[in-house]
Fold this protein.
Amino acid sequence: MAKKKNILLIYTGGTIGMVKDYKTNSLLPFDFSNLRKRIPELNQLPCKIKTITFKTPIDSSNMNPKYWIDIINIIQKHYETTDGFVILTGSDTMSYTASAISFMLENLCKPVIFTGSQLPIGDLRTDAKENVITAIEIASAYKNEEPIIKEVGLYFEYKLYRGNRTTKINSEHFDAFSSPNFPHLAESGVHLSFQEHLLLQKKSSKKLIVRKKLNQNVVILKLFPGITEKTIETILNLKDLKGVILETFGSGNAPTKKGIITLLKQAINRGIQIINVTQCITGSVNMGLYETSSQLKEIGIISGKDITTEAALAKLMYLLGEEVEYLKFKEYFENPLRGEMTVL
């Protein structure tokens, strides 16, 4: 008989951890130590579940790098004695958090599965129960004594995605997330079906390396028709600025106005790393395809290819925090480190 897997469930905050007090009609924090009582179906899974709850659960909108490090510290402390992790967070910033955690855990060889819900766990029509049950099932899924998932995933509404490939697309429907440029890794139907050819394959013999240095001196600069040079200049001259995610049009295009190009070039000359990502939901940056992106390529702007804005921001913070040599930065960013982009 297969040994039961040890799963650690970490609750940081968010909608999923709330139950309704029907006397006052208010929402109260859920006691995750009673998880099996609330979701008795968990008793059918071949795993032992331990829970850790943040002392003060945080709303999704308050998530930040400090809490990412708190999550990392818990994983690091329990990594050797745990077979899989399930992390419950608010869905609004889940793609940012999942992306960041993926870069912070180098040589990860165990499942770290993020999930949450659109409705509180105590609601009549909640999606929380299914999401939690299946996320735990995925985290405990092993084959030939090896975990099937050896990366950071995000499970929501019957689909498991690579965490750093996701973006939240809906605030009302249960299928709240999309992975626009990469297929889902698994699907929960009558059976839990993995697309094993898409999974990151890693050697379990490699030691986990935890990266906790993140540089927050970054901004997202979204271009729009009519954006002024003054606006761009103000942002690029922020004190201590080290990196910019430049959200451009289409396949990486920007206004060819000389003043704008000059401002971007001056920022690069000051050592600021500028990453070109597309505003489109799907597709990739291809600088040089049109004249409106050729100048960006010429001045040294880095291509984000088909990376999401959320993953680009996390990767930028990570590489700046690791103080990657300036001349090697472009090489590191334009190549996948955790499966976050496609090599075109």
